[in-house]
Hints:
Layout: H1 12-21, E1 26-29, E2 32-35, H2 41-58, E3 63-67, E4 72-74, E5 79-81, E6 85-89, E7 94-95, E8 102-103, E9 108-112, H3 118-122, H4 124-129, E10 137-142, E11 147-153, E12 159-164, E13 170-173, E14 178-181, H5 182-185
Parallel strand pairs: 9-10
Antiparallel strand pairs: 1-2, 1-5, 3-6, 4-5, 6-9, 7-8, 10-11, 11-12, 13-14
Amino acid sequence: MLARPKSPLVSIQQYLEADRAADYRSEYDAGHVVAMAGASRNHNQLVANISAALINRLHDKACNSYTTDLRVAIPSAGRFYYPDLVIACNPETYDEMLDPPALTHPVAILEVLSPSTEARDRGEKFLWYQTIPSLREYILVSQWPRRFEYFLRSDAGQWVYRGDLTNPQNLEVHAVQQRITVEEVYNKVSEESA
């Protein structure tokens, strides 16, 4: 596998200024800017389905779900990511020194896997997400076949893997005690375009 070419080193301030002015989103990995590729129809449909279900289920709770345009900051590591879905509970905490502010204390992050992002979502990004003290759960959603993978932080602070790899019935978002049926998650997602 070829290594991803590294961009020239830029400061956090340079990244934030460029990201504000850009017509596209990019993430920041300790000095390197990583442009975000466009997503497939299935990817977008999955994000929309899960987001709609979470918004509906959390409307009277002290938690909110957000999609790809909310930046998550890991300031201690000099990293800024745009997860597919992120859940934060009150009090929501943002790094107000950034423009726009970035969420610093999510309780759950969900990533929809794509061929171009799967290795990064499973590896580098998850390694850094684990350093967020408030994060209780990291969920990977496969486009096809229907599959959910969970990384749950135990009360002792250890990350535990649980895969729902064959015949999943529900997407369980343990951090906010919500269940979304597999039919809701995969509504209008096509196997042919996976």
